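Appendix B, Record 12. Input sequence as logged:
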Amino acid sequence: MLDQKTSAERLGAFSDAVIAVIITVMVLELKAPESPTFSALGPLWPTAVSYAVSYLFIAIIWINHHHLLRFVSNVTTRLIWVNFAHLFVVALVPFATSWIARTQLAAAPVAIYATIFVCVNMAYLVFEREVLAQTPTEQMSPGTRRIARLRSLTTLTIFAAAGLASIAAPLLGFGLICCALVFYLRPDVPVIAGHAAN
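Logged structural output:
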């Protein structure tokens, strides 16, 4: 039991370190204006907005990842590789953030940004499924599991729609991304009374 707990803690510690590096890389992309005036900050609004959304996204990823790790009882090789895949796509977020900031939320960069969100969400969905497969029903009811899956599929659909919408209307696509993030602000899924009894 101690070995399994230690393995779960090592998995969490490694993931924490990678996410910390990702945030650091993203912060290093923030460039101060050369002019010493407040008006020089105006043209930086795409950078500020994209950074804020990306930072929120990574914070949500960390919170939900940490929440799921509480249910891990057996760190399998498959779970480790799924975690690596999840971290790999999360590591692409600084690249897309920098691109949409430099191009002032142009169509192609926002579409790629949304596509990365789709990939992150798909990887999270697989990670979530791997963890919940080994979670006893007394820790999480079947109804709660269904709500968690529904939430993941709903946000996946919204991210995909954002990617398509971004081609014609990048601001609309970016707005859809922001809306999808709201679903994950709470790591624990709210249990509906009707589902709790299932």
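The chain has eight helices and no strands.
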